[in-house]
Amino acid sequence: MTAGAAATGWRAALPAGLRAYVEPAPLAAFFLGVSSGAPYAMIAATLTTRLAQDGIRKSTVTAFTLTFLVYNLKFLWAWVVDGVKVPVLSRLGQRVSWLVLAGVLVMAAIINLALVDPRTDLLGTVYAAILVAVAGATYDIVIDAYRIETLEPEQLGVGAGMSQYGWRIGSVVAAALALVIAGRWGWSLGYAVCAALALPAMLVGLVLGEPPRRREPQVRTGFDAVLRSIIDPLVEFMGRRGALLVLLFVLLHKVGDTIANLTFRLLFNELQYSNDEIAFYDVGFGFWAYLAGVFVGGWLYSRVGLKRSVLWSLVLMAVSNLSFAVLASLGHSNWGLAGAIAFENLTSGIGGVTVVAYLSALCDLRYTAAQFALLSAASSVVGRFISGTTAGKLIELLGFVDFYLLSTVVAVPGVLLFWLLMRKGLIDVPDKGVT
Q1: For the segment 267-294, what is each residue's pLDDT rounded down to a tens digit?
Q2: By the number of CB atoms within 10 A of the CB, which of 133, 153, 223, 338 ranks highest?
Q3: How many CB atoms lie within 10 A of CB 184?
Q4: How confident is the model at residue 51 (pLDDT cuts 50, 70, 90)?
Q5: Which helix (H) or strand (E) holds 63?
């Protein structure tokens, strides 16, 4: 029996609802997600905890979230991933060669951040975090393009779910490893070990090769090639019916969720949770709740369709911010932490599947890397900018309870805008069999 026949045989033995999740492309999306989540975790909650424990002021800690704006600028160089060949490695294929190169850059950047001490060199820590963000954003460009081009149209929902599973596992493993190792042997070793989580996506590319659905963009030379590679994806998108309102929704829908998520570790430090408590209740409970949310998101997507599943998930994500207002009012409570984290991660998992599937469906395959980079970057730029410039000051002014109540209110416009788009019939995607 051939390897392909054997694979078909063991998949056929699984329940019908699970078979779609173990096809090669969705499995690849899972491992791609693992490597996507790791570098993000290194400059997100993990770095926030490290800085808070080193006695850095809240306003300074939240200012570090400005490094995430690098992710929001990735569309500016996404054209490079689409059109520039990597010397020597290009024989592996355009996507695979960039997976290998970006993965190596991520590992080097994380190790560099491991070697910096924020207590003695805060500016050096800023530069190191920015390098991780640049490398991680570049990796995301390649990973997202590879995922979308590997999945068939009918696999977008399942693939988005598997990608979110992988992203969460990668970020959780990175965060937990860093916390546990840092508590025993120091942050430098914790970061250095987590650099290895960049490997799974590289291995996926080397094993599966170039995506079968990849479409080559029109070949141009000289300065015009650069200019058109940046402009064409945007022109194509903005030429669609309702494009401006869709883009406005993308900009606004995660504002409340983003400003809340980027401040959780400040709340935990304020309530005097230990690293082990954070690792167990935040990372542990959050991990399983997120996995459950991804499953629910996939089920919701298949049952009610893309549009209504996105709307429901937006409502849930907005409400989830209230749980942290409750935790802040309760004080140090392990079960309060577990409940708040579980509910927030459940809703994030649901939204991760539905919204990512929607953004993926919006991409024209001629400009996969550039358009998904633009859409995914736009989805969090406003929230990250607010977090980096005002979140710390707002917390100091309002307190944590009122801050999280405010983050809930800020999430409402995104929900209403998506509802308006549905009512006006302006949520259009290219013809990929997705409704």
Answers
A1: 887 888 887 787 777 767 777 888 888 8
A2: 133
A3: 10
A4: confident
A5: helix 58-63
Smallest Cα–Cα separation from 247: which of 236, 232, 262?
A: 236
Q: Decide if 164 contacts 294 (C-beta within 8 A).
A: yes
- Rounded CA-CA distance 212/230 in Å is 24
Locate 175 and state its tokens: 């965060």
Q: What is the mean pLDDT of residues 238-250?
A: 79
Q: What's the angle, vertex CA 430, arms to CA 425 and CA 435, rounded to 5?
A: 55
> What does the block give as tokens for 359?
């953004």
271-278: long-range contacts (C-beta < 8 A, 24 or more apart)? 271/327, 271/328, 271/331, 271/332, 272/332, 273/332, 273/337, 275/49, 275/53, 275/179, 275/180, 275/182, 275/183, 276/179, 276/180, 276/183, 277/334, 277/337, 278/49, 278/179
Quick one: tokens of 77? 């160089």
Helices (H) and strands (E) in the chain, counts: 24, 0
22-424: CATH topology: Growth Hormone; Chain: A; (1.20.1250)
Contact 358, 341 (CB under 8 A): no
Q: Is the pLDDT of residue 135 over 90?
A: yes
CA dist 47 and 42 (Å) reads 6
Q: Which residue, 403, 285, 293, is CA-closest to 337?
A: 285
